[in-house]
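User: Structure tokens for both sequences below?

Assistant:
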Amino acid sequence: MANKEAATTSLDSLDKEQMKTFTDFLMSYNKLSEMCFTDCVRDFTAREVKESEEKCSLNCMEKYLKMNQRISQRFQEFQMIANENALAMAQKTGKL
């Protein structure tokens, strides 16, 4: 019975984590959409999106995604260096 409860608890935490990940994704997507819309869409007199507005929106999105990817890469690099430094310090002090 304890195994079943542990499995249920594990699935619940997984579901919560997936929900948080999805919520974070939607927040980022909405932020990006709002930011690019505000920067690029200027004319509300026509039913169609102008070519210049579409290009601006695509460039905005691409730039944001590239920036986000670069920040993630730098964060990972920083984390690796921090982990290596912590390991070296632990080895130096004999705590490993």
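Moving on to the next sequence.
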Amino acid sequence: MADEKVKSDPSAPSAEYSVGDFNSTTKLADAPAMIDDAEYNPFEHRQIEKPNSTAGSLIHLLKSSLGTGILAMPVAFKNAGLLFGAIGTVVIGLICTHCVHILVKTSHQICQRTRIPVLGFAETAERVFEYGPPKLRRLAGFSKAFVDYALMATYYSAGCVYIVFIATSFHDVINYTTDNDWNVRIYILLTMIPILVIGQIRELKYLVPFSALANLFIVVTFGITLYYIFKDPLEFDDKPMFNSFGTLPLFFSTVIFAMEGIGVVMPVENSMAKPQHFLGCPGVLNTAMGTVIVLYAVIGFFGYVRFGDLAKGSVTLNLPLKDDLAVAAQILIALAILFTFGLQFYVPMDILWRKIQHKIPKNKHMISQIALRSGIMIIMGGVGLAVPELEPFIGLVGAVFFSSLGLFVPCVVETVFYWPNELGKFRWVLIKNIIFGAFSIFALVAGAYVSIRDIIALYTDDDHDE
């Protein structure tokens, strides 16, 4: 998928878009100020080498959404309760789906207005401000930079979660089977050895075998996890329908972390042979997100019913290590996340390198890439060493990065695009986006506060046993 290129047609401004390029920094020529939008259909002007089919795009979108996040859903339900967790998961899923929808729709419309066949996430934000209200046009460059840097921060922070997840899984398995008492930080340091190797892979085609193995391992792990969840009768009576208001921010931020895949949406849509099939009913987006919502709700609900308040940051960590099958599941999911790290790391590094490569002599590109990648991965490992607790870490990342990028930015982009005369009757678009924007700010502030509070408590509690 990631090697495919999307090129503009000869009549449009020269541009080239790579599905692996999440920021698409190609400079695009300015379009005339006065254009009849109806005259230009961007879909007809896209020239795509090896385009994705509708079914292939659906698979890519599903693959991007089904990762470590789904394994954290039982702990999300622990923070919400059975009834509120089920309803909240569906509601947050619908909000996330809607925000993706308005981002893609706005991108289509601004492409039409500017006569550009294809735009990425950051370029959509930039062009919306550039052609928006006069007082906001000076923010066009800032909006593009904000999305680019937010994407980098999101993927780097998610990579930190990956490192902690891998280390925690191996910590539990090896310590249990060998009677070792090594601290999880030792395993983080050991995890950094293969991470530093995989993170040096700069060609997506070399990451394909790793991704294929990761997908196989994840499917097997899901099957084993479901077996342990349903193999014995489930007890519902001792699980609260609602937990407490104090833990709700962690629920929201964990679910947002689990569901948000905003960074891959535009590349998937822009690589489709029939992009008109992405939105609509059923459409690729609705089908993928509907499947994701159902799977997340099922794993969260029944995972919490099975493990209750003992639910951990990944449901695989709750599996009984006395069983070889459970040990296999933990090892497989740890390897799956390890093999996924290269693709996860590719995204922010691609954005960063495109921003700085012109400042580095070409004969020093190789050594610069090695040094830059190694330095960033060492910093990520350092963050993992500082916060080796999976549950609050996931909440913090979901609250700060995924809520702002996946919820807040699409609402702002749509509002600016329609401002001031196309906001609908009673300005319902503005009201709706204010509500969703306020929710994203609440998730950011409250989720970050609770996560940081819990992290501080973990390391100030004299009774805490690492």
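User: Anything stand out in the second?

Assistant: Residues 50-457 form a domain with the Amino acid/polyamine transporter I fold (CATH 1.20.1740.10).
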